[in-house]
Amino acid sequence: MQGRTGGSAEQGKTAMSIPTNPSFDIAHLGHVEIYTDRFDESLDFFTRVYGLKLSGQDDDSAYLRAWDDYEFHSLKLTRHHSTGVGHIGYRAASPEALERRVALIEASGYSVHGWNEGDLGHGRAFRFEDPFGHIFEIYYDTHRAAPEGSDRPVLKNTASAFSGAAPRRIDHLNLLAADVSEFRRFMETCLGSRVTEYIQLDNGRIGGCWFTINNKTYDLACTEEHGGGPRFEGGGRLHHVTYATDQREDILRAADIFLQNGVHIETGPHKHAIQGTFFLYVWEPAGNRVELANAGARLILAPDWEPVCWTETERKKGQAWGLKTIESFHTHGTPPVQKQP
């Protein structure tokens, strides 16, 4: 993988002449399904403490959204015997783009689950799987949020009423994989994603990649698995899911709310060097890691963006500022790894 590593102006001009923008068949990250074996406690956390809104509920799942998510849900919280990620949903840019992307996925050689009829939040969707057990789906037909009563926004250009320091929208998720380079090929092939930043390890492996399918800096990250093996038997593992706030001060206020409610604050608030986000990580009651983050107004507008390369030495320096990254950040994922007796 070629990256931004320096060089002369003339070299830079040559390297930047090749377009790297994504296909734009995919519009944006739509939703993430999270498994919990403590459903009632997790639902209480995500609504009362974290500040998401409950759009609807069926026998197995609660459908949640942030106050400016326009779709019916951006988080599907599902009862399960364990934790982790159920599936990741992306919305296509049009019905034609959906069919075009499905044809590419079917021809890719990756595992295909096929079409399903959707759920409370969207219409039919096409599911497929990465080499590490993470299930993805793409769809176009969607159900929009329909706020009522006190949840109706005063400003017509927001999806629902603003409430407290609640997160504004879904931002990204981070998955774990034993081979990040192989995961990168999957994302580029199936979703038309591009890499905006990555970690190059001294042993030649890629330690992490940050992907986007539009002009956001990233909507999905994949980092190297340090506990699940080549393919975790319970399916691909989750590192965290993230919602964005309007400003940094929202995260500081949220830290006090988490403290007051006995939520485990793992690390932060600090600032990441990679992607430059101001962040706070907590564990919801079932153990899934959840982040609040603020990336400012940073966007990737250059059609010939060159991925930023972070060396292993640079990565080991830790965050841009704040306390040193704690060990659990590199080892904890969901579902937990079952130790052999």
Strand content: 25-35%
Please give the CATH architecture: Roll
Which quaternary structure do these chains form?
Answer: single chain
Main beta sheet strand tally, sense and closure? 9 strands, mixed
CATH class: Alpha Beta
Helical coverage, percent range? 10-25%
Distance between the termini: 40 Å
How would you sum up this structure in a few lines?
The chain is an alpha/beta fold and 341 residues long.
Describe the structure.
The protein starts with 8 loop residues before the first helix and ends in a 10-residue tail after the last helix. It has a single domain (26-144, 163-331), classed as 2,3-Dihydroxybiphenyl 1,2-Dioxygenase, domain 1 (Roll). It is globular, with a radius of gyration of 19 Å. It has helices at residues 9-15, 39-49, 95-106, 180-190, 248-260, 312-316, 328-331; strands at 26-36, 53-57, 61-65, 75-79, 84-92, 112-116, 125-129, 135-139, 169-177, 194-200, 206-212, 220-224, 238-244, 264-271, 278-283, 289-294, 308-311. With 341 residues, it is of the alpha/beta class. The strands form two sheets. A nine-stranded mixed beta sheet has the order 14-15-16-13-9-12-11-10-17. The model is unreliable at 6-16 (pLDDT under 50). The chain has seven helices and 17 strands.
